[in-house]
Give the backbone structure.
Amino acid sequence: MSKVLVVDDEQSMRDFLGIMLKKEGHDVVTAATGNDALKAVQSEIFDLVITDVKMPGRDGIDVLKVVKDISSETVVIMITAYATAETAVEAMKLGASDYIIKPFKIDELKLIINNSLEKRHLRKENILLKREMESKAGFENFIGKSEPMQKVFALIRQVAETNSTVLITGESGTGKELVAKAIHFSSPRRKKPFVTVNCGALPETLLESELFGYMKGAFTGASSNKQGLFEAANEGTIFLDEISATTPALQIKLLRVLQEREFIRVGGTTAVRVDVHVIAASNKDLQAEIAKGMFREDLFYRLNVIPIQLPPLRERREDVPLLVDHFLKKISVGRAPKKITPEAMNALMAYRWPGNVRELENTLERLAILCSDDTIHLEHIPDAVRSAKPCSDLVAIDIPEEGVDLEAILETAEKTLLRKALEKTQGVKTEAAKLLKLSFRSFRHRLQKYDGS
Ligand SMILES: Nc1ncnc2c1ncn2[C@@H]1O[C@H](COP(=O)(O)OP(=O)(O)OP(=O)(O)O)[C@@H](O)[C@H]1O
Ligand SMILES: [Mg+2]
């Protein structure tokens, strides 16, 4: 269904076109003068304008100019009498998409209308298709056999069947965007737009006009009516990334969209209804942001209908080998993927990965370039990843019901590491200190603490 404006000074023509277009399933507004057309275009965004050329006052060419000026993406078709056919050609130069000469057959007009709308639709669809190809989303590239990831996958399948708002939380690089795409591309909305908005990337006023669209003249620089991202996502999914970066003023407006499923364009007067699946993500703890007064609690509850929490990679180390295989294959386009020794894999599994999957992917990419062998060995693994190993093992310790004695654990760990370092260096203390990244003095001091024990 498209929104169509019919402009003609002749009542019978307006009625005729109005009835025909409504029958075709379009939403039709009519205007009897160029001035009325101008008013309509200022308050609403039309997909198509059909205008007569010859009218008293503002004529069809004026209407065309106004439409193209106010709403450059709107398609315009001119209706002209035989005598003014030259004007029609002129109109094409000014941006009209087609024209029809009176008298015409209904089918002829329908064909022109459908072609013009189709062209516009294809333009939009091409952009979508390209985006879908780029994202190559869905489940195929979403890796994880660990229990927490299996739970996440099950949840994704469930919410994909509903329109419930989803809030994805998790540290940076855990795959929040991947989850949002997987929901969209496994949902019945998959052929419709998936629109990502990075709320942290734009200042408040810009973000507002991007999200909700604007009418020409709403602010300096608003040179044409423009649909916002909520409208662009109609019938599809909108992914509000980094939602915690929004200001309280914008949060109220988002709340309204979630509650009413409608909004008003910046500088606009009429409410616009949309049908979108809203998915939001945050790598900040929103409860903590609420406590600080930075995030509205009511919006949080509206968003948090279905929470999906992504565990950090260090809490699902069994996924590391799968991810390593996946990324090594992905990196080696057209060549045999590099292999990796068990020792090297162990080092990757033991590391803490503060940047999570993204850090792992980047590390492997660098390894694949820097390592000229067809197998990655332990010595190829960056120092930062390798040396973090003992620490990460300790971090993996769980706290049992009865609690733990932190002092005792730290003492044991320190003693064990001191002893192992000395063993490794055959008792050469300066070397052992280096292994533990300690100054010699500090090493000797720690050793003396445990002397005799
Ligand atoms: N389970 C996974 N399987 C395969 N690739 C993954 C997985 N998780 C994350 N990735 C990859 O890691 C990178 C980071 O993922 P993504 O952008 O979804 O993270 P994010 O949680 O949105 O991070 P940020 O909070 O920094 O925006 C992407 O290249 C993504 O493809
Ligand atoms: Mg992200």
Q: What stands out?
A: The first helix runs from residue 11 to 23.
